């Protein structure tokens, strides 16, 4: 199971390859400011994702900064996590925790 | 102090290997964050500090639970077994000396250097199991034994002036110096191993000295080490050594196992990172 920060990093990299600060900005924008990753949380997530083979380093784009790209395994893991979360939401709806989809 | 330098100080909270791998990238990310932040006041630094503390704690936990776990477990086991064996070897040597004692031997002493060599080599032998190469193992055992022998001899003669703490320090320093010389060139950073060993052997020195005092108590013909009576830890350790029945024996083994486990726990972090690099 992925942590919240790891899932957000994967979601960010699904769109395009990014460097650290690029991911931080994208996640903040994607979640409308709800999730704000600091450098420590971000690189802790990156280190774990690299170790699990879900993302990997790619060649720097414009400057010397290390950028990351999602691997095939990472895409599969992100899909699985999204399915798991969707299933949880469906269960929560059944119990009336969330309003039904209209 | 500017923001980047202050963040550099915060970065030191992370484990060294993580810092080496991601420190520069994190500093870049921090610089961007700082440059584009709407507010750079207390709320910004509160966010950065809480992020650092949380992430550093996770990283330190990762060191224990990920790739170093097996190395850590083996190191704890090596230190525990080493300390227990030290106790058993020291006690066995003392019992043998008492058993074989004859009035003809009156005036003889159990040489501190022989005792030091025995304990140093015993602890060194269990710790050396962590090393991959046979030559490294042999070096570690040989250097631990020889330096502990020299250290014990030196400490016994200087203890009148230096007292109990000095006694342990002299042994620790002797072993540390010898091991540093042996490991220099073999490892990138031998200082970590040397510090671990100095601490381990100093601890064994105090415990061993108490064992000598306890085992030889009452044998007036034997000259005791002048330092033995000065060791403050004696009171705490007194009942752990020279057990008189199997219950006391079990208690002694359990107590020294706990002491070894503590010794391993204190030194496991630098030992793990050093041995992981060595492997």
Descriptive report:
The complex is a heterodimer of chains A (102) and B (279). By secondary structure, chain A is mainly α. A 3-stranded antiparallel beta sheet of chain A has the order 1-3-2. In chain A, helix 1 packs across helix 2 and helix 1 packs across helix 4. The two termini of chain A are 30 Å apart. Chain B has 279 residues and is mainly alpha-helical. In chain B, helix 4 packs across helix 9. The interface between A and B is medium-sized, with 18 and 23 residues.
List the helices and strands and how they pair.
The complex is a heterodimer of chains A (102) and B (279).
Chain A lengths: L3 H12 L2 E2 H11 L8 H13 L3 E4 L8 E4 L1 H23 L8
Antiparallel strand pairs in A: 1-3, 2-3
Chain B lengths: L2 H9 L4 H21 L5 H24 L3 H31 L12 H17 L5 H50 L6 H27 L17 H4 L8 H33 L1
Helix pairs in contact in B: 1-2, 4-5, 4-7, 4-9, 5-6, 5-7, 6-7, 7-9
Overall geometry of chain B? elongated
The helix/strand series of chain A, from N terminus to C terminus, equals: HEHHEEH
**Class computed from helices, strands and strand pairing of chain B:** mainly alpha
Give the biggest beta sheet of chain B. none
Strands side by side in the biggest sheet of chain A:
1-3-2
Distance between the termini of chain A: 30 Å
Tell the overall outline of chain A: elongated
Characterize the biggest β-sheet of chain A: 3 strands, antiparallel
- Helix share bin of chain A: 55-70%
* Poorly predicted residue ranges of chain B: 219-241
The proportion of residues in beta strands of chain B is under 5%
Q: Could you tell me how far the N terminus lies from the C terminus of chain B, measured between alpha carbons in angstroms?
A: 40 Å
Strand content of chain A is: 5-15%
Total count of strands of chain B = 0
Q: What is the CA-based Rg of chain A, rounded?
A: 15 Å
Oligomer: heterodimer
Helix content of chain B: over 70%
Biggest interface between chains: A-B, 18 and 23 residues
Low-confidence stretches of chain A: none
Estimated radius of gyration of chain B: 24 Å
Class of secondary structure makeup of chain A: mainly alpha
């Amino acid at each position: 199971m992925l942590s919240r920060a790891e899932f957000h990093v994967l979601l960010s990299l699904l769109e395009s390859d990014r460097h650290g600060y690029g991911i931080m900005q994208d996640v903040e924008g994607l979640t409308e400011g709800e999730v704000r990753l600091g450098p420590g949380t971000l690189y802790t997530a990156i280190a774990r994702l690299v170790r699990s083979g879900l993302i990997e380093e790619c060649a720097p784009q414009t400057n010397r900064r290390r950028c990351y790209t999602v691997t095939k395994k990472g895409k599969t893991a992100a899909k699985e996590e999204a399915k798991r979360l969707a299933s949880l939401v469906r269960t929560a709806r059944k119990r009336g925790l969330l309003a039904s989809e209209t | 102090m500017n923001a980047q330098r202050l963040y550099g100080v915060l970065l030191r909270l992370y484990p060294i290997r993580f810092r080496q791998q991601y420190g520069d990238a994190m500093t870049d990310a921090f610089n961007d964050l700082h440059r584009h932040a709407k507010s750079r006041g207390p709320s910004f630094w509160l966010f950065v500090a809480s992020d650092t503390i949380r992430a550093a704690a996770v990283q330190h936990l990762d060191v224990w639970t990920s790739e170093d776990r097996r190395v850590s477990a083996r190191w704890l086991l090596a230190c525990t077994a080493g300390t227990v064996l030290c106790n058993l070897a020291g006690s066995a040597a003392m019992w043998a000396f008492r058993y074989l004692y004859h009035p003809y031997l009156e005036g003889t002493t159990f040489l501190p250097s022989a005792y030091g060599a025995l304990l140093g080599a015993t602890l060194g032998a269990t710790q050396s199991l962590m090393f991959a190469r046979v030559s490294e193992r042999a070096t570690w055992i040989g250097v631990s034994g020889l330096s502990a022998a020299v250290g014990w001899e030196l400490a016994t003669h200087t203890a009148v002036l230096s007292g109990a703490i000095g006694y342990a320090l002299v042994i620790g320093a002797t072993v540390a110096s010898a091991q540093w010389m042996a490991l220099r060139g073999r490892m990138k950073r031998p200082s970590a191993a040397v510090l671990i060993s100095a601490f381990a052997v100093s601890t064994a020195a105090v415990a061993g000295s108490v064992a000598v005092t306890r085992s030889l108590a009452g044998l007036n013909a034997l000259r005791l080490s002048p330092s033995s009576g000065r060791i403050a830890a004696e009171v705490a350790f007194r009942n752990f050594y020279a057990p008189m029945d199997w219950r006391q024996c079990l208690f002694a083994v359990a107590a020294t196992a706990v002491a070894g486990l503590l010794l391993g726990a204190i030194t496991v972090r630098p030992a793990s990172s050093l041995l992981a690099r060595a492997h």
